[in-house]
Specification:
transcription; two-stranded antiparallel sheet; HTH hxlR-type domain-containing protein; 56% helix; DNA binding; transcription regulation; 3-stranded antiparallel beta sheet
């Protein structure tokens, strides 16, 4: 597993939440997952379909009985569900879950464990656009999950970004999962 897997996973708003809920024991039935997540039907359905396409969830071949779940985690999905649980644990009591549903939050934090320039972050996340990266960096800086420090000794001065506080805990949780 590498950062591109994290990028693919987080490209749908509710993917992390669905995996976390299944990891926490919510049965893999659409109605129960939808109610537990609080997602809208369309976004939830897109995230669920996305997880199936990535191979993290599979249709339960024994589905049909009212008590059997419709979906179950694959082996790869179980690893991603554990990652999702770790991210949620790193979040703690902070009410910033909507920020985690943004596509680039977790990948940007992951590559920003060490101080990085804008161009370095962009190079590590090839599909990201300048605008998406800029907006993500601003949002993370506003929540104090990312520290922006300007290197005045350089000509011209350049900002450098580093995960901090909750952002650093999330980045560490993801890095541990990537190393496993």
């Amino acid at each position: 597993m590498d950062v591109t897997d994290v990028v693919k996973l987080t490209s749908r708003a509710w993917s992390l939440e669905i995996l976390r809920l299944m990891h926490d024991g919510v049965p893999g039935r659409q109605a129960q997952l939808l109610a537990a997540s609080g997602a809208g039907r369309t976004a939830f359905a897109q995230s669920l379909r996305h997880l199936v396409e990535l191979g993290h969830l599979e249709r339960n071949p024994g589905h049909g009985h009212p008590l059997r779940p419709e979906y179950r985690l694959t082996e790869q999905g179980a690893q991603m569900a554990a990652l999702s649980r770790s991210i949620d644990a790193a979040l703690g009591a902070e009410a910033q879950a909507p920020l985690l549903r943004r596509a680039w939050t977790v990948p940007v934090l992951t590559v920003s464990r060490q101080p990085k320039f804008f161009s370095e972050i962009k190079g590590l996340l090839p599909p990201i656009t300048d605008r998406a990266l800029s907006q993500t960096l601003q949002a993370l800086e506003q929540t104090q999950w990312l520290l922006r420090d300007t290197r005045a000794e350089m000509r011209p001065p350049r900002p450098v970004y580093r995960a901090q506080n909750t952002g650093a805990r999330i980045a560490e949780a993801v890095q541990q999962a990537l190393a496993a």
